[in-house]
């Protein structure tokens, strides 16, 4: 390891956690390895792994998939990685690092030793089965202990404590959280937020005990341990996990005489230099301006500052934003800036509390109400991103700041692309700002795809796709570039124009359309779009030879592809009504083909894990029992959700189930630009949540009220009242017209909610076209819908009667075997992908 | 069958062309998967058939490197700026049929095999 007479400086990094590894990546990416010969020491036997997602270790992820890198990566870049070798001392007199194996000379050292979990000094805290939650070894120990345990307690109700509680729940233990403070997550939320958090977590079956100080731990009667609290109350449990905060691993620095903070931590400056300029410290071991930063993002920022220090760069550590957006035990918690409002004298609050939906939101604003200083969210982080934009970029708040935390209503101000400053983060996965996008456009990009390629924006979780597109479109227009609305490079037409061409010229195949009006082979954008248009116009089976190469894999195999290449199967259960006989058949089929079963949000049953070659047999049995395809795979009508209605319910005023079934049977098989969902409620109590659907129908004393263009999902939108007190027949004809107008005029993959928002003239225009027939299209739209209805056939029934179509359902055309790489494991009594 | 790769057959005498399936197994302008036994072990091959084009047959690795699932044959076939491609059905990355290279990520390439039509048989060099 002591390579002779290297001209490079010797850099030793002590610690191979997330932050230590990030520094290594920075060294590699910024070309610093030309200056430094790097050696990394890791005390654990594992290479750096993702501690943020540690709890997933219990839900199926293994050490390998949590790893942030590979030994090959280190080897490839000539970095010596010495795992399982703890450093004992830094001998500053001779500039050597000492381990139990050797002494290693250095020119620079970076301490990235992180922290350790604090275990309160309680008598009995070292009993067997008293554990901590920090490393993979800790998790192995917890898992082993849980095998002989029924109950578990987490001491500490902060972020990590709740993570640990989730892990214990995942191990099927009856779980309790014991917190010293009067509420959970005292750092992130106030008392009202904490109370709501407690309610939500208790609903999950986790017991929450606050204001409890454990005095001692001793032998229990009904379980292994008994915890005795300050008031002599007791709690018995088999397993205890301490998660009462972290302490910096500063012993190396202490022993070699570096400056240490009063309450621990290696003191660093903006360059991450310790009191010995040969030695730097980063991450949770480092104390900057009296603060330890217990999150990974500030650690990464310190790594970047340390790199600058090592390479004479400019970057300095200037503190870090501790805003966090979390999902703990399934509960959203968000905290932005000065969430408690105690760092800014004169700050004013806005608060919104909904104890029914269990949501709490708070804004902390400047005394003049113009700037956002902080925010707190419990229950719904959907508000986080917009608030973060206001906070991060110092944007002036709207006149009524409360609108930012009130449940979305008509007037809620959305941030348009021109309101965002250059520094606004558009893609948080790859940290792409609006400025980066503008730079890509200035460098010559003229379309969305090029911007994506240049910046990586929207290639992570994809949640920013719509925002990215609106920013790109807006900036292109601002630059005088005419935004090309062509569907793709093969057709110089919009989807709406292609629809009209197909309809007017009566074109029935993709090949005819591309020959007459496009060029090339087509692609995965235009082919499914044209397939959908052809189906909307003529409703021929999508598996016919001329159409099959156009379909997305879900339509090709009439099932939904899952991440391991198997499929899920969803038979239609119109209106959510199903006979016991049919329920039994679903169970039998799932048992026979080893399928994972789950109830969907649309009142159906989803059967997962079906192998390609089993699909025809599965459907043979389902069709035999009277089922038909549910089109869960298609951009088409999905479900009509209903409440039980006047048939059973004391409050119902109409037969909502009967109407739901009629509607579902009327529009099943209708292919559209995107999926379509309906809801029918039997009274104004609205138990079917119809106002969150594309089409919502709510019973009145006199008939039905129709709501349109609602949405759940990523961007919830309430449906708008469109017509009132319709008779059954009026309801059908209005929906016929509405849906067909949407099918004809929307962009590809545009839900009714987005279509409606982009529709010039808005709801009034839509009412004129559909209800007043201002374009004289009414009859034509109804006729067109009747054609689709008349030509409906179950695609699966059609396919299984055709041996040629069934040939496609083989894993291999030349071999009977199933795909041997599909491996399942069992969880909670069912199979899931391994 | 007049594919560029097929001509290599004459140049090299040590290659083995083995029959894989028949023309009737193929789906025009789409893909099917086949099981291939080779000296190095078995492989899953995605076969794409573009009748009437200069090169009609392509054989690529069936495994999608981004998801690890064996699904490439189930992707949509098309072209990007004239290069024939298949789009992975899982996360939609595009792979060029001629050399397996990924359009979105230079560092990723699917393995390819020479493949041709021999009468009604599809034969592959492996």
Whole-number count of domains of chain B: 1
The best one-word shape of chain A is globular
Based on CA atoms alone, the radius of gyration of chain A comes out at: 31 Å
Biggest interface: A-B, 38 and 38 residues
How would you name the CATH homologous superfamily of chain B? Rieske [2Fe-2S] iron-sulphur domain
* H-E order of chain B: HEEEEEEEEEE
Q: Which structural class matches the secondary elements of chain A?
A: alpha/beta
The oligomeric state of the chains shown is: heterodimer
Strand order of the largest sheet of chain B: 2-3-4-8
What is the total domain count of chain A?
Answer: 6
Write up what this structure looks like.
The complex is a heterodimer of chains A (834) and B (126). Chain A has 25 helices and 38 strands. In chain A, helix 10 packs across helix 11. The N terminus of chain A is likely disordered. Chain B has one domain: Rieske [2Fe-2S] iron-sulphur domain (Rieske Iron-sulfur Protein, 3-layer Sandwich). The radius of gyration of chain B is 14 Å and the shape is globular. The relative contact order of chain B is 0.25. At the A-B interface, helix 15 and helix 16 of A face strand 2, strand 5 and strand 6 of B.
List keywords for this structure.
heterodimer, A: 834 residues, alpha/beta, FAD/NAD(P)-binding domain, Enolase-like, domain 1, 6 domains, five-stranded parallel sheet, 21% strand, B: 126 residues, mainly beta, Rieske Iron-sulfur Protein, 10 strands, 3% helix, 42% strand, NiRdtase/SiRdtase_haem-b_fer (chain A), metal ion binding (chain A), iron (chain A), NADP binding (chain A), 4Fe-4S (chain A)
